[in-house]
User: What shape does this take?
Amino acid sequence: MPKRKQIPARPDMPFDIWTIVKQFASREITRISVPVNFCEPLSFLQRLTEDFEYASALEKAATFTDPGEQMAHVAAFSASVYASTSNRMTKPFNPLLNETFDLDRKEELGWRAIAEQVSHHPPRSALHVEGSKWKCWEDYGLMMKYRGNYMQIKPEGVTHLVFDSGNHYTWNKVISSINNIIVGTMWIDNYGTDVVTNHTLGYKCTLTYATSSSKEAKRKVTGFVLNEAGEKKWIVAGEWDKIMKVAPVTDATDEVALIEDENTTATVVWEKSAPREDSHLQYYFGQFATELNEPEPGVAPTDSRFRPDVRSFENGNWQEANSVKCELEDKQRARLKAQDKEPDPLWFRKQTVEDVGDETYVYIGGYWECKKKKDWKRCPKIF
Assistant: This one.
């Protein structure tokens, strides 16, 4: 079935960001009821799923037998989650507890995903993705702090990736900052270090995201794949908002040439899709993001696509969206207050992961089977 190519244009409605920023000074963003003017028409569950827009890199990585080559592609993929962020200063809607989102793209892209808001205090979102020869899962929360003329966003969580071959990888996400929120033109940066680890073979790749000095500066990312003996085997380099490349390390390897030379023999792992001409009217969404909130039959009644506030917001009815959003949040508070404890997640449980030893929310199965049977008895009414 053809996917939609656009959403209603963003209304030209200014907002007082200072009113919002003052709340950030002492509270986490996930605990703040932000006016919809500061949002984009997606739930955080949908935004989390958007991380897999370039998952074709994992499909390709699954075919490699050279552990260094596979890790290089995995590391390059881990940087792709930032490709959509370069102009996206808006915030997705906070998910309600037990809210879900599924995206089945097995026929077109080779993978499917199920996400759920698994905790309210602290806010936590879990995601499970299945490819043809791999599976990936993660759960994340966000810490956001106001730092004067910029806001700092620190993701808290771990991403796990396991190939059918047995290789088990983990990595974290780096810090993001939204700059010039009070004075100047706002722009976003992603910076820090991210260690990608192969727990099966002992390979590692430390990716360094260079701090940018301005909106016009290049968003460079570089790293080397080291084998279990600490020897450099592959180089990973590029720009997180444009392209990532990999190449085997030789005496002649030049990081700068790998990034800047279009004639380099390095392999392109992913390249950002070209933006649409009217992207500023489409919340700077790419085609993939445009499809995420498109109504789809057969999904659970807890799916983000059914959120009336997000739908009203997408349609340009911001005042109505704000009112409905407040109603949903009030209903959730009443629902949780009436119970002794938070309800358990529907499709995930916190477990200790073998090979790594950390606790994370793991998919327990059953969602796709219930979807096939149209059996949603376990789903609460949250909208």
Q: What stands out?
A: The longest strand covers residues 150-163.
